[in-house]
Structure formats: structure tokens, C-alpha cells
Write a structure and sequence with these properties.
This protein has six helices and no strands. With 149 residues, it is mostly helical.
């Protein structure tokens, strides 16, 4: 009966072995070796966290992945703000950003606010372009200008 090694199991789940195909047969050994090295390094980090900081390997891994996801979401919001407010004279279209980000057009429209605009301005050292006019973009509605309010 095999003994479960939670550290190795988590490392294996996060570093799956590549499938061997006719297209990668020549490189497969190198790819597999890289995966084994990553697995060993990850398992060792989890063991050290358990031994020295009493960190649960699964819970600490999930917490770390959540932090990475939040960082990626923040990066996407910043890049969407850049595409809409810092690329001019014509900002990226909502439909194009939505497709690239895997979001809806309305999700892209609300994905950023003044915080991301200010952050981008600070990083780039320049002011954003004025907001786009109220005319609808292709793919963002019926193609007619929005009514005046």
C-alpha cells in the first residue's frame, strides 16, 4: 500500500506531465525532466512551509493561488484602462478587449475606474486621453449614438 505524500500530490497536480505525442517525441524527455524538477522544487517548498512555519500545504497553496489570481485580475484591469484611456487617437474597441480578456463588453466597460486610470498615469508618466465620446462602438449595441441626457 502506497503512503500518500500530500506535498508531492499537490506538486504533481500543479505541474502535470506533458502528453507524449508524435510532434513532441524528440523533446519529451527534456519537457518531462523540467516538470519533475518543478514538482520536486514545489514539494520541497511545501515541506519547508509545513516544517518551519506550520503551514498546511493545501491551504497555503490555495491561498497563494488566490493571491496570484487577484494580481492577474488587477493587471487585466490596468491593461483594460490603458487600452481604453491611454491609446489614442482611437482607443481599443470594447468588443476587442472583451474577446481578449474573456469578458463581456459590459464587463470591460466596468472593469476599471479612476483608480486604475490614475495608477496607469503614474506608471506611464502621462495623462490619459479624454474619455471616448458617447457614440456606441461596433459590437457594443445598435451602432447608434447614445441619446443626450
Amino acid at each position: 500500500m502506497a503512503v500518500n505524500d500530500t506535498f508531492a500530490d499537490i506538486a504533481a497536480l500543479l505541474n502535470p506531465m506533458p502528453a507524449r505525442t508524435d510532434d513532441n517525441d524528440d523533446e519529451w524527455n527534456d519537457m518531462a525532466g523540467s516538470v519533475w524538477e518543478a514538482r520536486e522544487a514545489d514539494a520541497e517548498q511545501l515541506r519547508l512551509g509545513w516544517e518551519h512555519q506550520d503551514e498546511d500545504p493545501l491551504l497555503s497553496t490555495l491561498d497563494g493561488l488566490r493571491a496570484r489570481r487577484l494580481r492577474l485580475e488587477a493587471d487585466m484591469q490596468l491593461l483594460i484602462a490603458y487600452g481604453r484611456r491611454f491609446v489614442y487617437p482611437r482607443p481599443y474597441k470594447l468588443i476587442d478587449l472583451a474577446g481578449a480578456a474573456g469578458m463581456s463588453i459590459s464587463g470591460v466597460r466596468t472593469a476599471y475606474d479612476t483608480d486604475e486610470i490614475d495608477q496607469a498615469a503614474g506608471i506611464l508618466g502621462r495623462s490619459p486621453a479624454p474619455p471616448a465620446e458617447t457614440a456606441a462602438e461596433p459590437g457594443a449595441g445598435n451602432g447608434q449614438p447614445a441619446p443626450a441626457t
